[in-house]
Write a structure and sequence with these properties.
Number of strands: 2
Helix content: 55-70%
Distance between the termini: 32 Å
Mean pLDDT: 90
Largest sheet: 2 strands, antiparallel
Shape: globular
Structural class: mainly alpha
């Protein structure tokens, strides 16, 4: 966990540093501090910034490479350590398997290197990112996104769709967004990040299991099956208990 945390934060800080304009921060020390602070803040889904206006300053609003780096950083933090470790293990297995296949013709296949939990959370995470980006892009195209070019609109839409799920940073004025966009943001904030991550919310796995249960019931099935695996009843009960407690708290 420590290796993953510091590795991602160091890499993120380097790329943030590279993409800071020297005219905005002439002093080297300020740029280094800004880079390290925002790398940690992004990975921890903290939402803190050293700049009074946060990411709303013009130097950041139109700095799309910087926004993409921060998106990657808080998405990695929001995935959770078990999923990141599982991805690294799968990548190692994938390289070994195809390296053996090309060199010796040996097929070193192993089932379920990528766990069901990781698959559910990854699919849910990227589905929510796509849904949020498309919704934000369509609803705010001629509103808060109107001053950006097409690429800028797309990057800002991704940033604005990803950050509500616990990152807490913003490059647009949330007081100016449409009510329909606000409802999407509230939904994304409620769902939040994945289990054992740096993000909050009811968790992507809870939302996914609840959604799969609705689909199973609609199909007349008594069990939830995904990737030829059955989801345990205790997981379903926990998911609905979490959602119920969340609604009561709200």
């Amino acid at each position: 966990i420590l290796i993953i945390t510091f590795s991602i934060e160091i890499i993120s800080a380097i790329f943030i540093f590279i993409n800071i304009e020297k005219t905005f921060m002439p002093l080297l020390g300020d740029r280094i501090y800004f880079s390290i602070f925002h790398a940690i803040s992004s990975f921890c889904n903290a939402g803190f910034s050293t700049v009074p206006q946060g990411m709303m300053k013009e130097e950041f609003v139109y700095n799309y490479p910087l926004q993409l780096i921060m998106i990657c950083t808080f998405v990695m933090g929001g995935l959770g350590f078990p999923i990141i470790i599982n991805i690294l293990r799968y990548f190692k297995y994938f390289v070994k398997r195809y390296l053996l296949w090309f060199t010796s013709g040996e097929n070193n296949y192993r089932a379920w290197v990528m766990t069901l939990s990781s698959k559910i959370n990854l699919i849910t995470t990227f589905s929510l990112m796509i849904f949020g980006t498309v919704a934000f892009f369509a609803l705010e195209y001629n509103n808060t996104l109107k001053d950006h070019d097409l690429v800028g609109k797309f990057v800002t839409a991704i940033f604005s769709a990803t950050t509500p799920r616990s990152a807490g940073l913003n490059t647009i004025d949330f007081n100016s967004i449409h009510l329909s966009t606000l409802m999407v943001i509230v939904l994304l904030m409620w769902i939040g990040a994945s289990p054992a991550s740096t993000g909050g919310g009811i968790k992507t796995s809870t939302f996914a299991i609840a959604t799969l249960n609705f689909i199973s019931l609609a199909k007349g099935k008594s069990k939830i099956e995904l990737f030829r695996r059955e989801v345990a009843d205790i997981s379903v009960r926990r998911a609905f208990a979490t959602m119920t407690l969340s609604f009561i708290a709200i």
